[in-house]
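Troubleshooting log. The previous structure file for this entry was overwritten by mistake, so regenerating from the original sequence record. Sequence copied from the archived sheet and checked twice against the printout by T.R.
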Amino acid sequence: MAAFDYRQAEEVRDAFARHGCRYLFIGKSGAILLGFPDTTQDADLFVEKSDRNGEALVGALREIGFALSDDQAFQIRSGKDFVQLKNGPFDLDLVFAPDGIDTFEAAWQRRVVVEGFPVCHIDDIIASKVAANRQKDRESLPRLEAFRRYLQRR
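Regenerated output below.
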């Protein structure tokens, strides 16, 4: 699969806006939208866990072109902690309960909006990677922390 790109982020933003979805770009895709110079193979979205949002997400994802199975639609509607989608125009991870972030509402209050993209604050992105403690996250942390220092100086 090709790297996640800006055009795909626009598709998410526009379809999710039409359906009234509450979400934040998180992970490396979120950092990239903040200006982090890197690539990623998928988009990670921190999504609000609610019945209304789950239904809106299913509609928006289908509009974008994700061929959701009944089981995937159920997982999204019910707010399963992590739903990985590889059956659409790009790979997408929906995270209802990311490591290192207490609540969606708290992250929403700290969000940064970049060209209409709601993005987790860099502190939340880093906190999530620290808490996940995966090897690939540990490897990217020094670069993300340097990027945070750069943002703070601007």
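Residues 6-153 form a domain with the Beta Polymerase; domain 2 fold (CATH 3.30.460.40). Archived copy saved in two places this time.
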